[in-house]
Amino acid sequence: MPLLDVDELTVTFGGRGRRADRGRDRDRKPTEAAGPTEAAGPAEDTSVRAAGPAGPAEDTSVRAAGPAGPAGGNAVRAVNGVSFSVDEGQVVGLVGESGCGKSVTSLALMGLLPRKGATLGGRADFEGADLLAMGPRRIRDLRGSKLAMIFQDPLSSLNPVVPIGVQVTEILKRHRGMKGEAARKEAAQLLDRVGIPDPDRRLREYPHQLSGGMRQRALIAMAVACAPRLLIADEPTTALDVTIQAQILELLKELVDQEGTALLMITHDLGVVAGLCDQVNVLYAGKVVESSGRRELFAHPTHPYTHGLLGSIPRLDAPRGEPLNPIRGSINDQIAWADGCAFAPRCDRYEMGCLTGTPELTEPREAGHQARCVNPVLATTEVPA
Amino acid sequence: MAGRTRIRIPYHPYHPYSYNTRKKGARGVLRLVVRRLLQLIPTLLGLSVLLFLWLNRLPGGPASAILGERATEAEVARINRALGLDQPLHVQYGRFLKRIVELDLGTSTQTGQPVWDEFVLRFPATVELSLAAILIAVAVGIPLGYLAARRRGGWLDVAAVSGSLVGICIPVFFLALILKGVFAVNLGLFPTFGRLTTGVDATSVTGFAVLDGVLTGEFDASWDAVMHLVLPALALSSIPLAVIVRMTRASVLEVLGEDYVRTAESKGLERRTVRGRHILRNALLPVVTAVGLLTGSLLSGAVLTESVFSFGGIGSFIRTAIDARDYPVLVGFIMFIAMVYVLINLLVDLAYSVIDPRVRVH
């Protein structure tokens, strides 16, 4: 059994609350109803804020929302039936451009979406228990101990008025019952382990006194403090410069190898995927459109979207003046999967068949390679550029 | 470390690192305090010059206030000579400065008593009332503002926001009259006027009625003083309470959207750790500043509440002093309030440097 098995996860903002009796909140705008986690959210916010027409009219996967199902004229479905699994010690990538639902997926798994205003559907079994159905107390116990997360902007993700030491020891105190000097020593060891020089001094310092790379290392130290089973990294290298990025990725790889921690890597950077992930899930408009082993994905991208992503990477060996190959258009959360493929308007291989209902994932081929496309790219087609 | 030159950042009031109290520890705090106290001197000097010029330009004067409208020129001149007002302005100012150095604020033209004695008699009541009011405002306002922000859009939030609007709008004396009418006169729960019930045996040590009772062991007198404080303090706290509720709410809402709160939640910390260490500690920074300024304004603004409850503070004395052009009293009072403001600001800055390592001084 996989460590984490996400089955048809859906997240709807601005509809009914998680509990049916919260119905009176439904007319509020998503941003108002949303609490701490979402309001400060990363780039994915765009999909949440833009209140478009409702997603598919009916979706049986929404439980807990009561018999009325998802409702609200301004509801936005940020995640629309995402399924994937993570095995023990495996590194799984969740890839997609801004607004495709990557971060919302991770926040939903962590139970960090606002109780009001976000409706969850589907299942996410972690060690046999459904994370989505878990009470707040139980998931609070899991967070930081078995389930940890690293965020993308290390400066804003650290409390500016609390010393690094306190921010590291508080998690040791909470989950490992350590106290005083023991906790401080362990914190110093953690900082040392993630490659922060002079940890005793750094423990006394504040986030603004650390460099960007060191801040991210400190955040990683907090995340791995209790040797979690699953580590979710939400674009951990976005705010860092390239040399530091490489160091941080190297560190993550090392920690994962040493501890046997499974890593769910959320990124828009295919380079990160190529260097780190065993299994890759490509997300588009809240659905997994292609899922495959890393080698297989880079060798034979089947979905036109994946194909486009790979083709849009600029190459250093391309002749000067060669135009870049972007995917035309941009992601649009108002396009519903119910009527057909959400990528169709941007797709070069678009045909009439694309608009007859939601395309299903194809049967897994070698390395579990699946794609959600009725007119996939043939294996012989060259990746452009 | 030998051979290493210490870099000194020159003092600049708006530079955030110009007094980083964290680095130097207790010595840094001491230096900040001393520096700020020294700053008091030029502040008060400047203020006293302005005051002298302004008061001199006021129509009328103590002579006409004492003698009335029908005073003859000769009588006015006699009074002015007696008070030293016939001298050129710079001479008057010089005399004033000389007295100040000797801690002599002069004699009230109204009562003939030394200004200092008049203040000692009346200020404790006002200070006690203001402190009680700000305590109520802080103790109720911060939790209420926090809860309102956490339950944004809920009934508590709506009640807190609209309630604070009402609190700001209702004139304080009106609220004082209503409170007095309902709780003191009709229900008889609290005394209607004064600081102590006549006949209560209380020894005065500091002039602060509640504190005196505790110091001398006369706890019944303390309790009596507290009962007398409740209604006026409630009335006076209405505006600071409203301001604190709104500021806390806005500030907490802002902090709730910060990434570090999400990080704290992702670590699975106890709710109270997230609340205290990660939300409130950041959210209370602007509130601290507001509390400081509000405390200062209460000291000079308790006049109406004091008069409704005949509390005997400085307020009514100052009002009559204005009518009587009682210059020594007015100058002394305004200088005192200015000093209080500077000291409160110092306290606010100290609180900031304790809460926020970056010492944001704006």
Series of H and E elements of chain A: EHHHEEHEEHEHHHHEHEHEEHHE
Query: Are there runs of chain A of 5+ residues with pLDDT below 50, and where?
Result: 17-72
Greatest interface = A-B, 38 and 27 residues
Note poorly predicted spans of chain B: 8-24
The total of helices of chain A stands at 13
How many β-strands of chain B, per DSSP? 0
| Computed CA radius of gyration of chain B, to the nearest angstrom | 25 Å
Biggest sheet of chain A: strands, sense, closure? 7 strands, mixed
Name of the level-1 CATH class of the largest domain in chain B: Mainly Alpha
Structural class of chain B: mainly alpha
Pfam families (chain A): ABC_tran, oligo_HPY
Main location (chain A): membrane
Subcellular location (chain A): Cell membrane
Keywords (chain A): ATP-binding, Cell membrane, Membrane, Nucleotide-binding, Transport
Describe the structure.
The complex is a heterodimer of chains A (385) and B (362). Chain A has 385 residues and is of the alpha/beta class. Among the domains of chain A are: 4-87 and 112-133, no CATH class; 147-225. Chain A has helices at residues 30-33, 36-39, 45-49, 102-110, 136-142, 164-176, 180-193, 199-204, 212-223, 242-259, 270-276, 294-299, 304-311, and strands spanning 4-13, 76-86, 91-95, 118-126, 129-130, 147-150, 230-234, 262-267, 279-284, 287-293, 370-371. In chain A, helix 6 packs across helix 7 (180-193). The longest helix of chain A has 18 residues, at 242-259. Chain A is globular and about 70 Å long. Residues 17-72 of chain A have low confidence and may be disordered. Chain B is mainly alpha-helical. Chain B has helices at residues 21-24, 26-57, 62-67, 73-83, 89-101, 115-150, 155-169, 172-186, 209-216, 219-256, 259-266, 271-301, 303-308, 314-323, 327-355. In chain B, helix 7 packs across helix 10 (219-256). Residues 8-24 of chain B have low confidence and may be disordered. The interface between A and B is medium-sized, with 38 and 27 residues.
